[in-house]
Amino acid sequence: MCITSGVTSIGHSTKSELGCDEDRCINVKVLNALSGDVRCVLPVAPSWTLSRLRAELALREGTPAHEQRLLLPGVPGQGSGPLEHDGQTPAFEALAGSEVLHLLRVCASPAGDGGAAAAGLKPGALRVIDGAGQPGAPAQVVAWAIDAGAFLRGSPCEASPIFQLQTGTGLAYFRLFVVPADGESFKGSKGRGRLQLKCQSDPTDAGAPLRFSVSVEGPVESCGSERFAHDFGYRALWKGPAALAFAPDAAGAKVARLPRGAKVIVRLENFDCAGDYSD
């Protein structure tokens, strides 16, 4: 689930080394799940619950506890898994010996949206709705549905219908793409792909850098995203920083199977005219 490679363990420390209030702590290295960048090193004490770990991570790294999606590093051939334990579960038990966590920030839907953008969408369809108009909420929400089975076949690309986004200088036309992460097809990439957003309008219509976030909901992987800023007037194509698993093959399944009618929802939130957004 949005897991990067190259994870490194960093061991144990005493309370004198990290300021932990107990004699034996685990130094947990917290990585951005999309980019692999180190967000912080969190000294986890034996007495902590998972709720305490989330609260301490919020203080140290800045992501509110209710927006944290924590994932353990993947086991070769088995992918990885989220920490979905009860908040009172001992942190050491939830970590299961891991000294690395991957962090995704999953923002709540804007008030009044309630997932309406994606509700009832059939594969191939796209919907754009206006945001809630509240400070910090997106100005627009785009939802695009894709047949999940496409990522098991030899397709070279999945492309959305063309849609309009509000930019700093007005409306401009855009299109979302998912391209194979490796090779010439999704079958060759074992179901892994990368998101792209392309401006279809004249560069002068794209205006100032667009500020947006992208998330994915699917039968294999659901993940939030960091917010991005990209100047489409300078470069028409934005490329997502990480490959994602769109089909079971990418999750290490021996036989790729999908529920009937399974679909992937790509959700884009446009913050360009949303008020008090800050980088």
Q: Could you give a quick summary of the protein structure above?
A:
The chain has 279 residues and is mainly beta. It is built from four helices and 16 strands.
Describe the protein in words.
Mean pLDDT is 75; it is low at 1-19, 75-79, 108-114 and 274-279. 9% of the residues lie in helices and 33% in strands. The radius of gyration is 20 Å and the shape is globular. Strands 8, 9, 10, 11, 14 and 15 form a six-stranded antiparallel beta sheet that branches. It starts with 11 loop residues before the first strand and ends in a 9-residue tail after the last strand. It has two domains: 12-105, Ubiquitin-like (UB roll), CATH 3.10.20.90; 126-270, Apoptosis, Tumor Necrosis Factor Receptor Associated Protein 2, Chain A (Sandwich), CATH 2.60.210. A hairpin with a 5-residue loop joins strand 2 (25-32) and strand 3. By secondary structure, the chain is mainly beta. The protein has four helices and 16 strands. This is Ubiquitin-like domain-containing protein. Residues 26-104 form the Ubiquitin-like domain.
